[in-house]
Amino acid sequence: GGDHTVTYPILQAVAEKHGPVGLVHVDAHTDTGDRALGEKIYHGTPFRRCVEEGLLDCSRVVQIGIRGSSYDPDPYKYCQDQGFRVVPAEECWRKSLAPLMGEVRTQMGDKPVYISFDIDGLDPAYAPGTGTPEIAGLTPVQALEIIRGCKGLNIVGCDLVEVAPMYDVSGNTALLGANLLFEMLCILPGVKTR
C-alpha cells in the first residue's frame, strides 16, 4: 500500500545497513522525475532521489514493464544514463519473463537486492485500482514470473505500492496485490516453502 514515495525512506534505511543495493523495480513509470508542482519528493521521483544519495548500485538496477505517459520526450534517458536496465512493456508482450529473470539473477549476483513493485506495472484489466493506470501492461502470470524469478537472490527488502482499492469495485486489485506481496514474502532468504 501507500504511494511510491514510501520506497525512498525505506531505501535510505536499507542502504544505511547494506550500502548501495540492487533494485528490481516493476512499474509502468520509471519514477525518476525531478519535480512535480515544484516538489522534489513525490511518487514520481523516489528513484532519482535514491540515485542522488547513492542508495542504489546503478549497475544492478532493472526496471520492468515501463510504458505510458511521460513528461519527457525521452523518458528512459535519465535511467539509461545512470546505467539502469530498462525493460519496456513492449519487450514483455506475449511471452514468458522467465528468461529475462535468468538474466536479472546474473546481473544482481549475490549482493543485496531490494524489490519494489508498483501495482500499475500490471495492465489495468487486472489491476484497475491504482492512481495512475496505463494500458498494455504486464499480466499476473508475468508478475509471478518476476517475483519467483528473484528466488535465491540476496533480497534485503521489498514493497508493493500504489494499490488504491476505492478505484476498483471488484476488489481484484487488492486481491492481486495481497497475493503478490505473499509471493514476495515466500522468496525472502531463509523462507521454507516446501
TrEMBL record:
The keyword Hydrolase applies. GO terms for molecular function: agmatinase activity; metal ion binding. One of its GO terms (biological process) is putrescine biosynthetic process from arginine, via agmatine. The keyword Metal-binding applies. Coiled coil: none annotated. It comes from the Eukaryota. Keywords: Hydrolase, Metal-binding. InterPro entries: Ureohydrolase (IPR006035), Ureohydrolase_dom_sf (IPR023696), Ureohydrolase_Mn_BS (IPR020855). Gene3D superfamilies: Ureohydrolase domain. Belongs to the arginase family. Agmatinase subfamily. This is SPEB protein. It comes from Haliaeetus albicilla (White-tailed sea-eagle). The gene is Agmat.
